[in-house]
Automatic annotation (TrEMBL), chains A, B:
InterPro entries tied to this protein: DgcN-like, DgcN-like_C, DgcN-like_N, P-loop_NTPase
Transmembrane intervals: none
Domain annotation D-glutamate N-acetyltransferase-like N-terminal: ranges: 40-124
Positions of the D-glutamate N-acetyltransferase-like C-terminal domain: 130-327
A Pfam family: DUF1611
Protein name: DUF1611 domain-containing protein
């Protein structure tokens, strides 16, 4: 869907966190990212060479990816000029901003004039079918979570990295805007029409080799009332053979809905399994992935050990420790 | 949303079943339906006077409702002429067909020319918010099912009828095209963008009087892999105080997906409650509604008695027996 390699546009990002998507590309697809473009006032740096548009084009970059989230998702005036210039220089533009590139007349005019593409990854690119639930060949692993934004994408990408290192037959399947920008393709499930959600996940993870694994990026949580329907569709459309439960241990309430406490890991394990077994009776939870970034080394070690004893499944922080033990568990299935 | 009363367009319906929507309007909103319009070859009859467009206008009809589903959901040539004529005569047109009225240039031209509206009830009419899960005042009852098309809308409408007869404070809340055409308003949840599904249900069932009941029309089934995400959003967006489990006893597999058997009533009860209690810890299943239309009187009686003994909850066919016992259970809550 997106032409690689990328020039990463950081704009005037006010801090490193605002450049999360660019950071994700550098972490997981470093071979796609050949430089960064920063405007005056930018306080983010993903450690790539600062390139002008011309330098980036000469180095082979084909798409300028908006690797930054700004307040309100709007395209500011200062951004617009560089974006038009990029289109004039022969770049496609790709963005996950709320405000669509295609709805900006300056950008759509420039894109049409120069034969370049504007790719809004929040916008579904296909007419997806209604899910059939038919058993597909190949194997699938889905990340589920106690909450939104607890590390489901990160966990799936860490699994992919370890499985590729072991030369396993594997694909990461992006289901959100960051995942799509990082890997260049996928389905923005939360932007799909309700009737076709599960079908879009089936479409994303079709029949494959018997030894092939799709690593499906999870979304939301069965316990997050705003987005649980999306999670449900990912489970029923994904017909996973394996689930990894993801968690962030310092979260005091569900993201964005302060009246809701987090479910326990056991609750997420049990409900996810019950629901997954409707479509795949052999589905298993194979491990727990904990985002321990808010804990120090010792706290993290203790927390992971405690959870492992409590749940009886391999429990890792894939950032601190890699995903090897989770992949071992997948290989044992 | 729809202007009443209606003229019901039956077109060239090849049998009574094809006129299901018109039949639903006659059953549940007889005061909205002042006549039927049938074309040559029509084999359906909903028992209303056959009126010409002119007669219907003179009798006060404001909207011609396409009360018939034809093969493929297309608007045939024979229909088109009458539809254009209806617009010319001052009718709005309302339809739940797959092919949108608004996408037909003959119809959109005629509507614009004569200042009439084309209402495609499959198309969401609002920008719905993201669900917050905040506790709303008033009470809500949602129908859930072992499968699609087992009588959830019918059950909710039968509850409404009985509650209105008891002068209770109640509203039926339509969530599908038939329900919207029958009652003139609602949200077509399965056509809403995934992220906003639960929010659209919150929007549909806002704060209300403490003694007020919203009767929310259920969709799909938590066990139907094609549409379970929609069901989930209805439960979490609806934050029901009461659930009624709906079932059709002769179904041998889940509708449209022959490899899937039906869940038991206990499975639907337990999973629905577990999920509903995330958003409303006091939620209860108050009864079972069985569509016994495929059984004879005696079979139906036995079946209902057996289920009632098995589950220990009031079990009725609201078509055969009315919904009084279910409403008794709601009043006891």
């Amino acid at each position: 869907m997106l032409k690689t390699p990328y020039l990463l546009f950081l704009g005037d990002a006010h801090d490193q966190l605002a450049a999360k998507v660019a950071k994700g590309i550098c972490d997981w697809r470093p071979e796609y990212a050949i430089g960064q473009l920063r405007l005056p006032g930018c306080d983010a740096d993903v450690g790539l060479p600062d390139l002008t548009l011309e330098e980036a084009r000469n180095a082979g970059a084909k798409t300028m990816v908006i690797g930054v989230a700004n307040r309100g998702g709007v395209i500011s005036e200062t951004w617009k000029d560089v974006m038009v210039e990029a289109l004039e220089s022969g770049f496609d533009l790709a963005s996950g901003l709320h405000n669509r590139l295609q709805d900006n007349p300056h950008l759509s005019d420039a894109a049409a004039r120069h034969g370049q593409e504007l790719i809004d990854v929040r916008v579904p690119q296909h007419q997806y079918p209604i899910a059939t639930g038919e058993k597909r060949t190949g194997k699938r692993c889905l990340t589920v979570g106690t909450d939104c934004s607890v590390g489901k994408m990160y966990t799936s990408l860490a699994l992919e990295k370890e499985m590729k290192a072991r030369e396993m037959n594997v694909d990461f399947r992006a289901t959100g805007q960051s995942g799509i920008l990082i890997t260049g393709e996928g389905v923005p499930v939360d932007a799909v029409i309700a009737d076709f959600m599960a079908g879009s996940v089936e479409w994303l993870t079709p029949d494959n080799d018997p030894d092939h694994w799709d690593l499906i990026e999870g979304q939301g949580s069965l316990f997050h009332v705003s987005f649980s329907g999306v999670t449900m569709a990912l489970i029923h459309g994904g017909q996973p053979d394996a689930l990894v439960v993801c968690h962030e241990p310092t979260r005091t309430h569900m993201r964005g809905i302060p009246n809701f406490g987090l479910p326990t890991l056991e609750e997420v394990r049990d409900l996810s399994l019950k629901v997954a077994r409707v479509v795949n009776p052999d589905c298993k939870v194979i491990g727990i992935s904990v985002n321990t970034s808010a804990l120090n080394e010792n706290e993290a070690k203790n927390y992971l050990a405690n959870v492992e004893e409590q749940i009886g499944l391999p429990t890792v922080d894939p950032y601190r420790q890699g995903a090897a033990r989770l992949v071992d568990a997948l290989e044992e299935l």
